[in-house]
Amino acid sequence: MKYHKIDNALFIKNRKNFAAKMHPSSLAVFNSNDIYPISADSTMPFQQHRDIFYLSGVDQEESILVIFPDCPNPKHREVLFLKETNEHIAVWEGEKLTKEAALETSGIKTVYWLQDMEKIMFEMMTQCDTVYINTNEHYRANVETETREDRFTKWLKDKYPAHRVAKSNPILQRLRSVKDQIEIDLMQHACDITEKGFRRVLDFVKPGVWEYEIEAEFMHEFLRNRSKGFAYTPIIAAGNNANVLHYVENNQQCKDGDLILFDTAAEYANYSSDLSRTIPVNGRFTKRQREVYDAVNRVKKDASKLLVPGTLWAEYHVEVGHLMTSELLGLGLLDKADVKNENPDWPAYKKYFMHGTSHHIGLDTHDYGILTEPIQENMVFTVEPGIYIPEEGFGIRLEDDLVVQKTGEPFNLMGNIPIEAEEIEELMNK
User: Is 278 helix (H, G, I), strand (E, B) or coil?
Assistant: First the structure.
């Protein structure tokens, strides 16, 4: 891995917290992701399943974690099954985790090779009544591919049909949504790498550059700072491209007078950052661009203050809608009649700001979190208001990543990344 070694105290604590939520006489199983094929002998770069990583720190394929807190055999209360490394694998792919390295990474003492899994699982399954399976219940999930986890679950339920089945995901939704300080530090590092990329791009952008050239500048800076690259598919949208919310082609030229909307950020150690900024191609905002930019920035600042413990998700978004409505009235994009006659299910402001303001962020860019439960200390959210005006040829979105504090305003992990219009212009024209 490119990233520095993570303190295994994080993974030990995460397993302890998960085990405390399990039913008596139960075990839970977590699988690595597959390496997904492209065609012929080509594959996608490996991305670890975030749940097994969260609980073990293991970042390689063909790995299985079992947690069985009530196991009568103390050796089997935490077990890792790993792909056996050998000299051939070491030569062709690089050495995989040894049993000693797996202990150092995860804090798990009992490590077996994967070839022994069925025999040892049989012993453990005869000693438990309930098995936790790991299903994807994220509110944005839309998965058509059968995963390694899915295949394992089918095998397990077929082989052991008399066991009760429980779900890991509700436990993980709550645990993963509240971050440990080690996790916050890793996310801060991802944000710091993103800052370096953004400052590099401020020096690079000028009329005539292409969106993909800007993407390359970000990628260069991310890779040279131990990131695998982008935390999500990057959006680099000049001019009217910014009015396509998930524009990812990044293949157009940036013209004098245009704005460029960036939604680009680095990962680090599988943790995401998520940044949006909008800058003028020529280094100067027009009067109208500046008016809209400042309006979006005001909404972002005021929305950020609402992210405090006890806030309910739905109420937060209603309040941000009021903030945006006021700004759109001031910009002349809405009038009082628009607001008076609005559809409550699709308020007038949605014409210019049609997406949500915030989402959980962590190991996934759209991270785990149960939206019907109150916000808690040490949850991390994006705040990303935007105003999109196709008829004027530009859109503006601004986004930072914020850690909810016990009291007071949230802490901005991106507080060092330029956002004020004056600073953007100054840096682009130095």
Answer: strand
Task: List the helix and strand counts (H, then E) for the chain.
Answer: 13, 18
Retrieve residue 275's tokens: 């940044």
pLDDT tens per residue across span 1-57:
899 999 999 999 999 999 999 999 999 999 999 999 999 999 999 999 999 999 999
Distance, CA of 195 to CA of 148 (rounded, Å): 35
- Between CA 232 and CA 190 the distance in angstroms is 13
Rounded Cα gap, residues 264 and 409, in angstroms:
25
Contact 60, 83 (CB under 8 A): yes
CB atoms within 10 A of CB 313: 19
Q: How far is CA 68 from CA 10, 23, 75, 254, in A?
A: 19, 10, 10, 56
Label residue 406 exposed, middle or buried (CB < 10 Å: 0-12, 13-18, 19+).
exposed
Geometric angle at alpha carbon 278, from 230 and 414, rounded to 5°: 60
Q: In this predicted model, what pLDDT tens digit does every residue of 48-79 receive, in sequence order?
A: 999 999 999 999 999 999 999 999 999 999 99
Classify residue 405 by burial, with Cβ atoms within 10 Å: 0-12, 13-18, 19+.
middle
Question: Which bin fits 271, alpha (ψ -120 to 50), beta or left (φ > 0)?
Answer: beta
